[in-house]
Write a structure and sequence with these properties.
By secondary structure, this protein is α/β, with parallel strands linked by helices. The protein has 8 helices and 29 strands. A hairpin with a 2-residue loop joins strand 23 (about 295-300) and strand 24 (about 305-310). About 40% of the residues are buried.
Length: about 425
């Protein structure tokens, strides 16, 4: 399980916090440590997982001096002022080295990637020579050692090629394969249980009753969690019932490293949620100076971390990406790299009051001149899930911003690499 430094229980901390986004993020970060579990997996199974141990190269890459292009290999001692000629004595292919000696005044036809003959140290491009039946003539000046890739110039034996905490990419798989490494040690995937709360929620395929809506939050949560290579446990919809919620939380804390709920964390809403959380664990209810997503619950139930997210669909996604996702990455052992932020002009005016940090949904695009710009998706209500579907970025408006005119520069957090 993950390690957690306790805070006061929710009974001692309800409604007394009014944190900035930065403060809330830092509190969560400082209270969490990576899980201890690890596993040894094959290379193909390692994609998307986080390295528990650094990978140290057992060999050089490339393993021998080789040609960077098709041409002719020869001794640098034979370099003269152009033009000069050399005798061609053989051919070196990739995977089939030239086995003979190359003496003074001689050369070997060589292909890209082929091993440089032991007596040679320089390659001239085939386009820079004039070939005859048994000789070549060089008409351009040549530099000693040119067009040769030296053994170990990419990776030397003993180099750390991938550090612990790195989430393995497709390029990493190729790098590891080039070193002959068939297995790596990774953190085991996190186990995350999640559910929605509320009598008004229906599952897909059910008939909506009067005052009911379909539960969308579990589907967005499932999608966001699945992109992190996490073992997800969908616990469905938990009704507004003390006994049902207690059973769900107890079951989730026994099965998972992290519990995520949506709904029931606003002040005055379903007070029994706070009572049960206080009974079962150490949970803080925070008010965060942000929009959307002001209420957030964070803490521990038995050995599992707990995140209580708001019920509005956009609020769920914003709080997940800004608080839960970084926390899950930290728990999974991944090194924190922080989000990518770019500053671009905004095409439309934005209305905003100072006091809260806003995450407005935007569309980042290139105009006809090829310049990056952004526009909002339109209405920014916390229940307008379409705004997230249309968007490809968050427009970040800090607490001091009190509105912007069209053309103003804004900070943008692209979804690429985030979602």
């Amino acid at each position: 399980m993950a390690e957690f430094t306790p805070q006061p229980s929710c009974a001692d901390d309800v409604d007394h916090n009014n944190l900035t986004v930065k403060q809330a993020s830092q509190r969560i970060h400082d209270l969490l440590s990576p899980i201890s579990g690890w596993q040894k997996v094959s290379l193909r199974q390692a994609l998307g997982q986080v390295l528990h141990q650094s990978v140290v190269s057992p060999r050089q890459v490339p393993p021998y001096d080789n040609s960077a292009m098709d041409g002719y290999a020869f001794r640098s001692d034979d370099i003269k002022k152009a033009p000069f000629s050399l005798k061609n004595v053989g051919v070196a292919f990739a995977g089939k080295p030239y086995q003979g000696q190359v003496e003074a005044g001689q050369c070997v036809r060589i292909m890209t990637g082929a091993k440089i003959p032991d007596d040679c140290d320089t390659v001239v491009m085939q386009e820079q020579i004039e070939a005859h039946e048994q000789t070549i003539t060089l008409h351009t000046d040549v530099t000693a050692g040119q067009n040769v890739r030296l053994a170990g110039e990419d990776i030397d034996c003993g180099d750390t090629v991938l550090p612990a905490g790195r989430r393995i990419t497709a390029a990493d798989l190729g790098l590891l394969a080039s070193l002959g490494i068939a297995e790596v040690v990774t953190y085991r995937p996190l186990r995350v249980a999640f559910f929605s709360t509320g009598d008004e929620l229906c599952g897909l395929g059910e008939n909506l009753g009067d005052g009911q809506i379909y539960d969308s939050n579990r589907y967005t949560l499932f999608g966001m969690l699945s992109q992190l290579n996490i073992d997800v446990i969908d616990m469905g919809v938990v009704p507004d019932n003390k006994a049902a919620l207690r059973i769900a939380l107890q079951q989730a804390s026994a099965d998972a490293d992290v519990i995520i709920s949506s709904g029931g964390v606003s002040v005055g809403d379903a007070d029994y949620v706070k009572d049960i959380l206080a009974e079962l664990g150490q949970v803080n209810f925070w008010k965060i100076a942000m929009r959307p997503g002001r209420p957030l619950a964070f803490g521990q139930i038995d050995e599992a971390m707990f995140f209580g997210l708001p019920g509005n669909p956009v609020s769920v996604m914003v709080t997940f990406y800004q608080f839960v996702q970084p926390a899950l990455k930290r728990l999974a052992g991944e090194t924190d790299t922080g989000p990518i932020i770019v500053e671009v002009p905004c095409d439309n005016a934005i209305k905003k009051r100072a006091g809260r940090f806003e995450f407005q949904r935007g569309i980042l695009f290139r105009n006809n001149e090829g310049q990056l710009r952004v526009s909002t998706t339109g209405a920014q209500g916390s229940g307008i899930l379409r705004s997230m579907s249309m968007a490809n970025c968050f427009i970040l408006l800090d607490e001091n911003c009190d509105g912007l005119s069209a053309g103003s520069l804004v900070n943008v957090q692209p979804f690429a690499g985030l979602v």
